[in-house]
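Late entry, evening session. Most of the bench is empty. Finally got around to the prediction I had been postponing all week. Sequence below, unchanged from the version circulated by S.P.
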Amino acid sequence: MGDIVEDEASFYSNAQDYWKDIPPTVDGMLGGYGSISSIDINGSKAFLQKFLGDGEGKTGSGCALDCGAGIGRITKRLLLPLFKTVDLVDVTQEFLDKAKTYLGDDGKRVGNYFCCGLQDFVPESGRYDVIWIQWVIGHLTDDHLIDFLRRCQKALRPNGLIVIKDNVSYEGVIPDEEDSSVCRDLNIVCSLVSKAGLRIVHQEQQKNFPKELYQRWVMITPAIKCFCITHKRHFLCGTFSGRPPDAAASLSPERFYLTDVFSVRICCFYITEYF
C-alpha cells in the first residue's frame, strides 16, 4: 500500500477528522445505509453461531472484542446477546460516549471502552473468545494490519476466533479520499493474512442486501501455525470475492486439529465488491 498511503500520519489523522464529523447514529455508522443493519446483523449472527458452543473445538461465549465499534451497533445486536462480556475499541471518543446510552441496560456487561486507533491498540493477552473486526481494516496500512492481526492472535482464548467482515475490491487497491481509507482486492488481503502467519480456508456469501449495493461476501479462513504449545487456538480471518485462491477453501477445519500444537484458524466476511 506504499504507493497509496504516501503520508501515514495524514492517512490516520484525516480518518479521525472524518469520523468526528459523522453523527453518532446507526445511519451515520453505516454511511447512510442504516436500513441494512438488521440484514447485516442477521447474517453475522448465523455465521458466528456455527462456531460457538460447549463441545470440543467450539468457541466459548465469555468475552468478545468489537473493533471499530462506533456507537456499539454490533455490540448491541450481535455480541452482547451471545457473550457475557464485550469490550469496545474505537478511535472516536464521541461514539464511545454515545454507546454508553445506546446500549441501555445491557451496557452493564461492557467490560471496557477503549478510545484508540487499531494501529496502536494492544488487546489484553488471552482475554477474548471472539475478536470482531468489521468495516475497519481499510483504515489500517498494510504493515499495521499485519501487526494488529498478530497481536489479536495473542489476545485469544483457547479455540478463540478472529472475524473480519469488510469490503473487497475487484482488483488492486481503491482509495477513498473522503474517509481516508482503502479497499483491497482478494489477492492483497490474502497476502497480508499470510504475512500475519495465517491462511484462508472457507467462504460464504452474505444474502439479502439491497440490489443497489454491491455484492457482499462472507468467508471463513482457518490457518495452521504450529508452536510448541499443548492447547489449540482458532483464529478466524480472511476475505474472498467469490473464488477461493486454492484448494484450502474446500478443506474441513477438522483437518487442522493437530495434537499438542498451537492451531490457528482465521475466519472472515467479505462485504462489498467494487468494480
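Two things to note before I forget:
The domain at 8-274 is CATH 3.40.50.150 (Rossmann fold).
The two ends are 19 Å apart (CA to CA).
Will write this up properly tomorrow.
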